[in-house]
Design goal:
single chain, about 260 residues, Rossmann fold, seven-stranded parallel sheet
């Protein structure tokens, strides 16, 4: 059971506004809570249609006393993302931190994949990153401060059977992040990716037991990751003093994939 959080009072620069897309998912919720515990004012963004999960999320973060709030948005909709950022900046404050954690899967082999399965995934997993970054980056560069973290995946590095769409999108996320990092490096804005390995989430829990056990056997540390493992990396990269790390990919995969 998680202990009652200690949330810093929003009286210092730590109270910067942090937007987290996919914020009511397992990893997204943990990111929101960890950021709030460092004093950030957190906006969790997700689909308005997930009513039951939204209510559960609000109960889960009630002890944060307003340091985490929910705002609905479909990240695949460019105009909706613009409206969301405008609403936040007008009513709460300027967006200083953006964490793009929204993502879906549409798994099947390429021989069986139809265009809808490709485009639906790309609209969320890759276009969503563009849509949100495009609407916050000008304000961040104007204010000479910003921290952007985009969630990629170990499968964007290794590929995975039945995930040509997902692997392509996640590889694209890091390529996008490196390019944007170069554009913003002299403006006080850092852009990095975190690439989770296999984590103890509902998505992995749905994998057949035998396959899941084989995955765990192939992870050098001998266990699945946790949402907290990922959130810890995000908090590190979004810190005010993490200004010399940009264009980097931080793999959090228990040694499942190692590269030089």
């Amino acid at each position: 059971m998680r202990e009652t959080p200690t949330v810093m009072t929003p009286s210092t620069s730590a109270a910067r506004i942090a937007i987290v897309t996919g914020g009511i998912g397992g990893i997204g919720t943990e990111i929101c809570m960890r950021l709030a515990e460092t004093g950030r004012q957190v906006i969790a963004v997700d689909l308005a249609t997930r009513g039951e999960r939204i209510e559960a999320f609000r109960e889960q973060v009630a002890s944060y006393h307003g340091a985490i709030r929910f705002e609905p948005c479909d990240v695949s909709d460019f105009k909706a993302c613009g409206g969301l950022v405008e609403h936040i900046e007008r009513n709460i404050g300027p967006a200083a931190i953006l964490v793009n954690a929204a993502g879906i899967t549409r798994d099947t082999s390429l021989r069986k994949m139809d265009p809808q399965q490709w485009h639906e995934l790309m609209r969320v997993n890759l276009d969503g990153v563009f849509n949100m970054c495009r609407h916050v980056v000008e304000g961040m560069t104007t204010r000479s401060f910003g921290r952007i973290v985009n969630l990629s995946s170990v499968n964007g590095q290794t590929g995975q059977f039945g995930q040509t769409n997902y692997s392509a999108a996640k590889a694209g996320v890091h390529g996008f992040s490196m390019a944007l990092a170069r554009e913003t490096a002299r403006k006080g804005v850092t852009v990095n990716t975190v690439s989770p390995g296999y984590c103890d989430t509902p998505m992995v829990a749905a994998v057949p037991h035998e396959i899941r056990q084989q995955i765990i056997a192939d992870i050098p540390v001998g266990r699945l990751g946790t949402p907290a493992d990922i959130a810890r990396a995000v908090v590190f990269l979004t810190a005010d003093d993490a200004s010399y790390i940009t264009g980097a990919n931080l793999p959090v995969n228990g040694g499942y994939f190692m590269s030089f």
